[in-house]
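Researcher: Please predict.
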Amino acid sequence: MMTEYTLPSLKLGANPLLIAAGLMALAVPFSFAQAGAAAAPASSLPASVPYVATMTFDVASVRENKKIDMSVGYTMGGWFVAHTTTFRVTNLAIEDLLADAYGVQHYQIVNAPPWPWPTLFMVEAKSDSEADAKLAALTEKQQAAEQQHMLQSLLEDRFKLKTHWETREGDVYNLVLAKGGSKMSPAGSMPQSEQEKEQFGDQPVQPLFQRCDGQGCVFIAHAYPMDEWIEMLAANFGRTVINKTELTGKYDFVLKYKGRWDRDRPADDMDPTPPMDQALERELGLKVEAARGPVRMLIIDHIEKPSEN
């Protein structure tokens, strides 16, 4: 069976993403854009004025799900209803909530609590219609900033969270051009397939989505921003990825792979589908090289489980 994941954009509001436990073939961030949502209006603030997020939730319900049966699995995911303050997530670990709230990957979180697995939370929160109207009038980036601020405030209130930031020298990957250069196509050069047209119908073409089955996974990108592709690679490789390619802008591409690294495969594995590190080079003309570099870390100074409500 083919399992599909729509991954339009990182760190923006999304419709709930329901994923059966154990189906994921790689780590994928939980913060995704609303598929087919209308663009938010442009803000009247000059670009030179830094935006300061201030919004918080009016009401919130946070509870640990203590009825999970690991023998039958569970669903997980969720995010904000597009262009609103309504937030719903199902069965997220504290690391997932922190990643969403602060715009980081799991490897950037230090001192996460050693709560036994599965410690998963159900969260519902929202503000009033006036706050929704205010949020909808902002740009996409400003909406994302407000939504992250709302989550941060929620975690500080209900989980008694205290944090600080540090930049540390750590293991990173440099993304460089392979021999022969990039094989990605300029945005708009790859038409939608018949399967995509059937799947998305009249909705706008998705910047990035993924299909996975027992034979591997495939990323399909249409006008996908290079900076967001860097973030997606960081999420999957589990390290900060630094763009050394000098490529900017948006690209169309297809990346088919199975697993992350060639070194992880048994010596007798004859599967013709390449792992991600090899597929990047063969199919996109990109390479990841191990390096040392600055990594921004979210340090957890204090956190505790929320009280039942």
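Model: The helical segments are 94-102, 129-136, 140-158, 194-200, 226-237, 276-284.
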